[in-house]
Amino acid sequence: MKLTLHDIEALEQRAFNAWPARQSVISGGWLLRLTDGYTKRANSSNALVAGAPFAGVLEEAEALYGRHGLPAIFRLSPLAPPEVDRQLDDAGYRYFDPSLVLQTDLVGGTWIARHGCGDGVAIDERPSDAWLAGFAAANGVASAQRQTHDSIIGSIAMPAAFATLHDHGEPIGFGLAVYERAAVGLFDIVVAPAHRGRGFGQRLVAALMAWGKNRGADRAYLQVRAENVGAQRLYDRLGFREAYRYHYRVPGST
After folding, report:
1. Domains in the chain, number
2. Which of 117, 122, 197, 207 has the fewest CB atoms within 10 Å distance of its CB?
3. Residues 149 and 51 occupy one common structural domain
4. The sheet that has 241-251: what strands, in order across it?
5. Same domain, 153 and 213
6. Which domain CATH number covers 178?
7. What is the pLDDT of residues 133-179, one digit of tens each?
8. Whole-angstrom Cα distance, residue 118 to residue 112?
């Protein structure tokens, strides 16, 4: 699934809006995000536009994150010029956590016929206390980070779906979807380890895709770590294909 750089710019914007940072600074064509160190997504510097000039950004980022007691982390998508990766490598920043952005088409109804629409999945458009607690626990959020985690969720400005998958009345899976400009993003899809390999993950994803389609989405996207081969197999069955890749550069001492 080949995207133009303009397509990638638009998709990156949606992903930033779907997982908002508590604070952000725009420097030329770069977006520097800060959220108390919780998640690299919300605490990294990102190119906003293709070929964004990098002159002075490294020094500015190191100063900004340093004032907040955080390491300067760079998330490099295809929008970042190739020389940025080389410059960060030369400065001692190590390559870390390569990830894929996957996308699938929601036009038509054939995918619902193939994958269903997520039986057993309850979707709310506001996060309940029970959902926040279950979602945080399923994703391994430490108690010290709960306030920041919940603050990010509460700051989502776009229409969102908060999904809970039940099996015999027990909540065993959680997921988040955010709709913006005819696309639905899926985030932190997780099923309890004891229930994996039984099709529950597919039901959870299908339910969120159906919610997005009902909102008007003609495509769905998500981010997955390159090392997570099991999740990639699931998403492949649901029609997701690689759109582009990104990785992080973190200080060598981190």
Report:
1. 2
2. 197
3. no
4. 23-27, 30-34, 45-47, 74-76, 241-251, 93-105, 219-225, 183-191, 170-180, 160-167, 121-124
5. yes
6. 3.40.630.30
7. 999 999 999 999 999 999 999 999 999 999 999 998 899 999 999 99
8. 9
Tell me the two tokens of residue 72: 């300067």
Nearest to 82 by CA among 101, 60, 57, 54: 54
Q: Is the pTM of this model over 0.90?
A: yes
The model's pLDDT over 23-38, given as tens digits with 9 standing for 90+, comes to: 999 999 999 999 999 9
Residues in contact with 170: Cβ distance below 8 Å, sequence separation at least 6, in sequence order:
none
Q: Residue 200's pLDDT is what?
A: 87
In a domain, 223, yes or no: no
Beta bridge partners of 76: 247
Within 8 A by CB and 6+ apart from 169, the residues are none
Which helix (H) or strand (E) segment is 46 a member of?
strand 45-47
Q: Is 88 among the domain residues? A: yes
Q: Are 159 and 215 in contact (CB under 8 A)?
A: yes
Beta bridge partners of 113: none
Asked if residue 84 belongs to a domain, the reply is yes
Token couple for 90: 């030369």
Q: What is the pLDDT of residues 60-72, one digit of tens each?
A: 999 999 999 999 9
112 and 94 co-located in one domain: no
